[in-house]
Design a protein that fits this description.
The chain has 193 residues and is an alpha+beta fold. It contains seven helices and ten strands. It has two domains: 101 residues, no CATH class; 88 residues, Alpha-Beta Plaits (2-Layer Sandwich).
Amino acid sequence: MRLERLNHNKIKIFLTLDDLSDRGLTKEDLWNNSLKVHQLFREMINEASEELDFHANGSIAVEVYSLKAQGMVIIVSKNNDEELEDEFLDDYIEMQVKVDEHQDILYEFLNFEDVLDLAKVLQRFEITEGALYSYQGRYYLLFDDISKIETEHLVAILAEYGTPTHMTTHRLHEYGKLLIKDHAVRLLNDYFS
């Protein structure tokens, strides 16, 4: 689990599928408003309180973005209500949970050579799609509209060359530089093989 403070009343939590599994949960469990899910959120808030000095009492909004093969990004926003006394809020957290599933697969690569090596392997499996971005000295391959059969193979191969990223596609679109818009794998092989 990775934690990041976005501003004074908002944090981002990235959970991998392994993090969920270690806690005895699956992505499907998050769709249900169960006690296990509330315990997970309470644990995350407690950890954020210790690591980021993020104290959430009272009402918080929890937005869960499920990333197809990587895990989930969770945005927690606290609603500061100055009228309520802190002493009454120690054990009180009211959660409003919104769950959204993204079908995109996004992986991060440390250098361009890793992306080129990956493209050669993906071509052998007739995977030619993808969009290539750069952001803060790293490279990102974004895949969408991948069939379920391809997804399992694709994620296994991507994991050998890169790492799943906690960055959202919205942030990448907004701040990243688009290098290749469509069929990035095919174009990388055409130009660099």
